[in-house]
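S.,

Sequence below, as promised.
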Amino acid sequence: MPNLAQVDPLTPQLSNEQVIERLQADRMVEGPQHASEDYIKALTRTLIVSADTELISAPSYLGAAADAPDTSSYMSVISIVQDELGHAHIAYRMLRDLGVDVDELVYGRSPGEFKYPYAFDVPLESWPEMIVANAFYDRAGFVLLSDVFDHTSYVPWKRALVKVDREETFHLRHGERWIAKLARDEDWHRRIQAAMDWMFVLTLEWFGLPDDLKKHGGQLSYGLKGQTNDQLRQTWMSATVPFAEKHDFDVPAHLDEESGEYVIDCAFPMAFDPEKKEWDHGKGEVSWDDVIDRWRAKGPANERFVTSLQRGHAALAGAA
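The prediction came back faster than expected:
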């Protein structure tokens, strides 16, 4: 048995079988010395998606903040942007601790190589879209990260998420409070409904492929998360649908009383026009292969958002 104090902390020391045995004995993973190569690969893949998602939300929200109704509202969004950048830093720091070249990851990749939900590739251009993003997108992030916090076997991430969880709660409540406030006004209600019409289904996509098509099983088998994609989708709808109905907004989902599960009332998945921000209801359901092709092609804001995040680093490198 090696002396772990003398082992390179970036070198996985266990086999996959030993990791599974460790987890079954309710022993968690503090670092690579308690992990296998496959565990680290699954963890790295998951952290990259989390970090990229937090990072790309910053330019997305910043653009919509320009339509804030007053200075106080604008500053609230700026505070949210600051939080999101902090969350990204936490995830990238953990990746650095796993031996990942984070500078190359953030500044060396092309825009198309970043990994985050497609929804952030569709620019937010109004205050209604901003607050619906808080209520829908940040709720999705909260659902995903709360599941990680509750179930993850990787202790450093669990500790870090205590702060992240509290701040994501503020973000989603910011959106919900504004929606509740403006819903009483007919014109605001109409504009918020228009945002929900395209953003609700995009957020359903946020949770990824349905369980029968899920490709990476390591997240569950290694205890990096607790719920499946479809279960997470249900958790999100269980909070979002009642909230929308409470304020007289129409969303394409309802609770089936007999099964106790939420049913999606439109074709899903469905073709989407990101320029018009419209779903093709007439075409009906498309294949997940079609959706994956759209995800891989990225949306209209991808290059602009990523370039804005990399621009300062590129300028400093050029001046050196």
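Strands lie at 253-256, 261-264, 272-273, 278-279.

Coffee later?
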